[in-house]
Structure formats: C-alpha cells, structure tokens
Amino acid sequence: MAEQTAAAPPARRAAFGFIFAVALINSISFGLMIPILPNLVKSFTGGDTAAASEWNVVFAVTWGLLQFFFAPFLGVLSDRVGRRPVLLVSLFGLAIDFLVMALAPNLMWLWIGRFINGLTAASMPTANAYVADVTPPAERAKAFGWIGSAMSFGFVGGPAIGGWLGDIDLRLPFYVAAALTSLNWLYGLLILPESHPPEKRLKKFDWSRANPLGSLRLLRSHHELVSLAAIWFLYQLAHMVYPAIFVLYMGHRYGWSPALIGLSMMVSGVLGVLVQSFLVGPTVQRLGERGALLLGAAAGATGMAIYGWAPAPWAYFAAMPFAALMALVIPGLQGMMTRRVGPHEQGQLQGANQGLTGIAALAGPILFGLTFAWSLRNEAVLQAPGLAIYIAAGLMVLAFVIALRTAKAPRPELSKEAVG
C-alpha cells in the first residue's frame, strides 16, 4: 500500500483539486443566501423579529430531521456505488432548493425548498469521504483543513455579495446561488472523477447500515469513536447558533443592514481562511490532531462567550479571532476519526457524522432560536439578548472537557486498517 500511495500523488492532487473547487462553489452559494434568508422570512412575518426566529426554527428542524434519516442512506450508497453519483444528486437538489426559494411567494414554498434540500444534502459528507479515499491517513487532517478553507473562502465573498444583492432585491441572491450551484453540478458531471474504485466498494447495499440507527451503530462498534462522535455532535450543536440567530441577532442588537451583516461575515470568513489554510497543518504537526482539537474547542468557547456579551460592535469584532480558531476542531477530529475505520466504511462514517449533524440541526434551532425569541420577548426584564450564544459557548466547554479526557491517538493497527 505504501508503494501505491507513493506512486499516485499526481492523481491524488488532481482529484483533491476537483473536490476543493466543489466545496468552494458550494460555500459561495450558501454564503450568498445566509444574510438574506432570515430577512426574507421576516418580510413574510410583517417585520416581527421574534416570529421570524420561530419560523427559522421550523425550516431548520425540517432540514435536520430529513438529514437525520437520509444522510446515512446517502453515505452508505456512496460506499456501494461511488462518491461521484451521490455528489451529483446532492448538488442538483441544492440547485432546485435555491430556485424554489427564489420564486417562493410565501413561507410554505420556502419550507418546500428546505424540504428538497434536506432530502439530498450530502455534498460535504460525500466530499469528506472522497478526501479520505484519495489522502493517506497521516495527511488527512491537513487535507480536511484545506476543504474547510474552501468553505471559508466562499464565506469571505459570499455573504458580502449576498448582502449587497439583497439590498437591491431580497430574491436576487437566491437566483445567483441557483446558477452557481447548477454550474457546480455541471462541472462535477463533466470533470469530476470517481475516487472509490469498485474493488473497495460494498458488495451489496446494506439497509441495516443505511438507516439512522444502523449508521450510528458504526460509531458504537468502534468504541474509540464514541467519545469523538460526542465531540462532533457538541461542536455541530454549538455551531448551529450561527445560522439559527446571528443575522437576526446582529440586526437587532447593533441595527446592522443586510449589507453590513454580510461584510461582518466576510471578515469572519477571511479569518477562517487564514486559520484553515495556514494554521491547521503547522498546528497538527506541532500539537498533533488532539492538540488542534483542544485548542479549537477552547478558542471557540471563548469567542462565543464574547459574542454573547458584546455590548457594542467593537467587542463583537474583538471576538472574531477566537471564534475563527474554532476551525481547528473539525480537521483534527476528522483526522482522528477516519484513522479508526477501513476504506469500505469511510462513506458510512461520514454518513453517521452527517446523521449526528442532522440531529444537531434538529435540536440547535429549537434550542437557540426559541431561546433567542424568548430573550427578546423578555428583554425589558432579562436584558440578555446573547443568552443563546452563552449556551453555545457552554457546549464548546463540554466538548473541550470530553476531548481532554478521552481523545487519544489511535492504535497503530487501526491506522493501518484505515489505509486499506
């Protein structure tokens, strides 16, 4: 296997470049709509911020519930038929989602768009499995960092452009996102090679692995994955505070327009790019995957706590460098998790992780969205609009404690098995 790895670096680099481009365009599309969707929802609620927050909960719960049931199915399907067809289906569903939201005349049509996306949203889990296919275990944390940087690159310009387009017309960013995602799908259809060769695929589709509980059994069957999966879930749950409330939070607390909110997200994206492009590799090299995980969790908890407290924009911006270091968590965690399963289980692992993300996407908006709505309705007494963000910071503290106590380097035989 070592000889094969050494003999194939050009092919690996080319394939990784394709996935990097897919992740980049995907994130730009999402970035365009992030500062706009809550305001579009708000326009359907007569300008009621608390009601808009509650509707955002409905949309996010729908998406999370569908992800919980369908992400494991798509993960196992990618182990059986390959990564490329699953990725193409996911990108096509995302393009339809954006188009439906661009044309939506009411909240029900917005919900239908989220429903379609929830059924097919597996682009990043499949991309992560693709990366695991083409990258040696020792280099995966760095590779996942580069994929994360592609996501952050998208959030550098996407929200700022989306906010600017949204000031022209709230629907315009969705049309642009639909066009970009369609181009991404076409790019994948014509250029993207398959990463998972037939000899490494599952011999037959296994429904016991494809259902949510069956997929999560993979985590339980590898006992060393259990604590790492718990950290994954806590991270994803805490991270849900951003899409759940931050656009409405910044508009309410600081009076920012969509364009200004987009610019603040651009600053956050720049910091994320710097961390993922230039800090993940050196941090993993110096501190190891566990060290990167611990540093990211501690910094993320600190940044979120400052976000919740920030009485003025200067304090909010001061928290951004700490929050950006939270980007160290996933590369370190992915590197540790992919070492613990074989090549025929990488898709199932990513499906299980996405299933946990689906649960977080189900619980997070309920927890943070309803907490934010409650804090606004009781603001005269409580005066704590950042209460939901404090809860997210507490979740990252818990993730740090679990990582400190349980996250360890895998046994050598597990790493050899992961190479295949």
From TrEMBL:
SUPFAM superfamilies, per the entry: MFS general substrate transporter (SSF103473)
TM region positions: 14-37, 57-77, 86-105, 111-131, 143-166, 172-192, 225-250, 256-280, 292-310, 316-334, 355-375, 387-407
Major facilitator superfamily (MFS) profile domain mapped to chain residues: 15-411
Pfam families noted in UniProt: MFS_1
Main localization category: membrane
Subcellular location: Membrane
InterPro entries: MFS, MFS_dom, MFS_trans_sf, Sugar_transporter_CS, Tet-R_TetA/multi-R_MdtG-like
Keyword tags: Membrane, Transmembrane, Transmembrane helix, Transport
Membrane topology: Multi-pass membrane protein
Domain of life: Bacteria
Function: Resistance to tetracycline by an active tetracycline efflux. This is an energy-dependent process that decreases the accumulation of the antibiotic in whole cells. This protein functions as a metal-tetracycline/H(+) antiporter.
Family annotation (PANTHER family): MAJOR FACILITATOR SUPERFAMILY (MFS) PROFILE DOMAIN-CONTAINING PROTEIN (PTHR23504:SF15), MAJOR FACILITATOR SUPERFAMILY DOMAIN-CONTAINING PROTEIN 10 (PTHR23504)
Protein family (similarity comment): Belongs to the major facilitator superfamily. TCR/Tet family.
Name by which UniProt lists this protein: TCR/Tet family MFS transporter
Organism, as annotated: Phenylobacterium terrae
